[in-house]
Amino acid sequence: MTRMDKRMESQALAEVTTEKAFSMVELLMSADPVVKLVLIALVIASIWSWAVVAEKFFAIGGARKKADEFEEAFWNGRADDYEMRPGQNPDNAGARLFAAISREWRDAKSISPNEHGALVARAERSLRATVDREVGKISNGIGALATIGSASPFIGLFGTVWGIMNAFLNISAQEDTSLAVVGGPIAEALFATGLGLIAAIPAVIFYNKFSGDLNRYADTLDAFSQDLLVRLSRRVSDGPV
């Protein structure tokens, strides 16, 4: 094969590739309006799920890191450096837990012994409410991943059913079963199925991951709140800890 033949073959291959790419774009642009709506909805769902994934990835990781840093400071005797007072809004969950009982912490040595039980019970309720609030705040939004993960395959399936129905309608209208007649609607149908899976699979995976991360985060806050209660109980009974 001469150099000229190779060049002509390369140009022909490039033209075929360009034609195929254009044909796919043209196929999507000329798709049935219902299928177009399905595809647009799935693209929006996919973008939405990845936005939630990116936000929660940094939010949960940052919250756990800050809470661990405060807990380490607390056990090293440096909790007073944070100067927690009621009404303040510290930048991490561990500090907010301590701020929730800061009044009881300061009043532990100034109350009468018969008020010790009420003080600890009040601190326990405050800590439980704070833990629930922290977990609820950090988990806000991951429900969208569950919705996208469960709904996207069915939305894609609806597009598939609609595309196949159009293929049969074309056969009936043109009385022709050739690929030229049914190829377009079937391609639209399969594309809707694939896009539905593309939107659903990452949403399900990251929903399960974040659910596990949130459970571990909640367990960490629960454990720290129990440690705070133990130290508070000792403070009111045995003096400063």
Question: Which key terms come to mind for this protein?
Answer:
single chain; rod-shaped; 2 domains; 241 residues; mainly alpha
List the helices and strands and how they pair.
Layout: H1 3-29, H2 33-75, H3 93-100, H4 102-107, H5 116-139, H6 142-174, H7 179-238
Helix pairs in contact: 2-6, 2-7, 3-5, 3-7, 5-7, 6-7
Word description of this protein:
- With 241 residues, this protein is mainly α.
- It has 2 domains: 1-30; 31-238, no CATH class.
- It has 7 helices and no strands.
- Helix 2 packs antiparallel against helix 6, helix 3 crosses helix 7 (179-238) and helix 5 (116-139) runs antiparallel to helix 7.
- The protein is rod-shaped, with a radius of gyration of 30 Å.
- The protein starts with a helix and ends with a helix.
- The model is unreliable at 12-22 (pLDDT under 50).
Share of β-strand residues = under 5%
Counting DSSP E segments of at least 2 residues, the number of strands comes to: 0
- Per DSSP, the total helix count is 7
Distance between the termini: 90 Å
Helix content: over 70%
The string of secondary-structure elements, in order, is HHHHHHH
**Structural class by secondary-structure content:** mainly alpha
Calculate Rg over CA atoms: 30 Å
The major pleated sheet works out as: none
Low-confidence residue ranges: 12-22
Shape: rod-shaped
* Whole-number count of domains: 2
Mean pLDDT equals 77
In short:
The protein is mainly α.
